[in-house]
Amino acid sequence: MHPHDHTPIVAAEEAPGYYEIMETAVRELLVAKQIISAGEIRRHLEVLDSRTPQLGAKLVAKAWVDPAFKKRLLANGRTACEEMGISFYENTELTVLENTEKVHNLIVCTLCSCYPREVLGLPPDWYKLTPYRSRAVKEPRAMLAEFGTVIPDDVEIRVSDSTAMIRYLVLPRRPDGTENMTEEQLAALVTRDAMIGVVPVEFQKGRVQ
Amino acid sequence: MNHSEELLKRLPNDIGGQPGAPIQRTEHQYLPWEKRCHALADILDMRKIVSTEEKRRGVESLGAEMIGKLTYYERWVAAFANILFQKGILTPGEFAVKMEEVAARHSRGTAA
Amino acid sequence: MIAGIVKDEGDDPRFHAGDKVGISVRFPVGHYRVPHYIRGKKALVEEVVATPAIDNEEEGFGRNVGLKRHYYRVSIPLTELWPGYAGSPHDGLRIEVYENWLERI
After folding, report:
1. What are the boundaries of each domain within chain A?
2. Which residues of chain A from 123 to 152 reach within 8 Å of chain B, CB to CB?
3. Is A81 a catalytic residue?
4. What are phi and psi of A187, to 5 degrees?
5. What is the reported pLDDT for B112?
6. What residues does B25 pair with on adjacent strands?
7. What is the pLDDT of residues B2-48, one digit of tens each?
């Protein structure tokens, strides 16, 4: 540090950018006009923060150990979620897509960023950007290879493109060697990216997870 | 012959199947204002003030240049401002005044 | 089923699982939810989305009431979408399309 440097040790709070100012203006005007309330926004922020991939992982683990639940989950994803206390704040349906020996599913929204937010939280940037959205429906195999996922030629790939009311969640395959794991241990293996369908769920015996 | 009609016939977000770059698994921690913007969008949809579909159309209406240069939530908030003006819920004038007021708060707060 | 009920227009889905359908070709301006890459393609209805809904292309302009129709989850082989598709011939797309974009073939 330069001996004559008078820079404060603690930096002043960064000024809000143009768009943050815009967001604040919209929100405050709508609240002032009593069109929405500040409390609603605060509450909904808490709802959003509570929705993480751990919810999806719990659904997957339960489906792996409970065949009757799995049947309900595959028949109607939304009602199965509601059964587990996962409410839907959007006017959407949820279809859960089961990966099998013969079929590998992956999900995309080519037109925007539709995503099963109630069970996975907010999507990663790459899901919303052009390369994924343009390539998933045209060259899924080459694109999956970039994620390190190679799907054998005798396995059918199904790419589900959300355009309207249905949101999708992939039910990945349960890895070998997990037969004696508890539901909680299984859930800890299931990643967000496995539920999008770009990677499998992995388990390596003897390795620290 | 003017081929500008392609700009109208194909929306800037209609990119399925177009040649694409290698995937970069970029992620970022959502900024507080971005989360607030997301919450605002959900509330406006739930209250049927601005539906999610109206927001999508509003973002498309920004046009290719803005869509290319603004980030995801920047597009949302710009679209919301326009839609709220169109619906007569907010006016551009009061909005501009409010934005100045919000911007001034910070500079007042850090005046030496 | 209870007899004597008169159905409203749009109550019953026009298509059913297993129907072969064609995706229409037209070029709306302003807002649409049927991407270019599926227009004119042949598809198979996999599932009818049970609850009829508002046309989302009109909903984009604020129309949230009115006649409801059904969405259909359809499948289209990737070989149908992309000439020279290099993956498995069984690879396919699943996509939701509103009733007014589907034609019987």
Report:
1. 18-48, 51-196
2. 124-126, 128-135, 137-138, 143, 146-147
3. no
4. -60, -35
5. 45
6. none
7. 689 999 999 999 999 999 899 999 899 999 999 999 999 999 999 99
Closest to A111 (Cα-Cα) out of A81, A89, A149, A137:
A137
Contacting subunits of A (3+ beta carbon pairs below 8 A): B, C
Residues 6+ apart with CB under 8 A from B54: B83, C59, C60, C61, C62
Give this complex's ipTM.
0.94
The string of DSSP letters for A47-95 reads HHHH--HHHHHHHHHHHHH-HHHHHHHHH-HHHHHHHTT----SS-EEE
Binding-face residues of A in 13-72 toward C, CB within 8 A: none
User: Span A179-191, mean pLDDT?
Assistant: 97
CB C43 within 8 A of CB C76: yes
A149 touches chain C (CB under 8 A): no
3-state secondary structure A1-15: CCCCCCCCCCCCCCC
Rounded Cα distance between A114 and B35, Å, is 16
Q: CA A31 to CA B101: how far, in whole Å?
A: 16
A170 neighbors A194 (Cβ within 8 angstroms) = yes
Query: Alpha-carbon distance A119 to A168, whole Å?
Result: 10
Token pair, residue B45, equals 């949809």
Q: Is the pLDDT of residue C20 over 60?
A: yes
Q: Which homologous superfamily does the CATH classification assign to the domain defined by A51-196?
A: Nitrile hydratase alpha /Thiocyanate hydrolase gamma (3.90.330.10)
What digits encode the pLDDT tens for the residues C42-91? 999 999 998 899 899 899 998 877 789 999 999 999 999 999 999 999 99
Every domain of chain B and the residues it spans: 30-109
Instruction: Write the CATH number of the domain with boundaries C20-104.
Output: 2.30.30.50
C interface toward A at CB cutoff 8 Å?
33-35, 37, 49, 51, 53, 56, 71, 73, 75, 78, 81-82, 86-88, 90-98
A113 annotated active-site: yes
The per-residue DSSP string of B42-74 comes to: HHHHHTTSS-HHHHHHHHHHT-HHHHHHS-HHH
3-state secondary structure string across A157-205:
EEEEECCCCEEEEEECCCCCCCCCCCHHHHHHHCCHHHHHCCCCCCCCC
A28 interaction partners in chain B (CB closer than 8 Å) = 98, 102
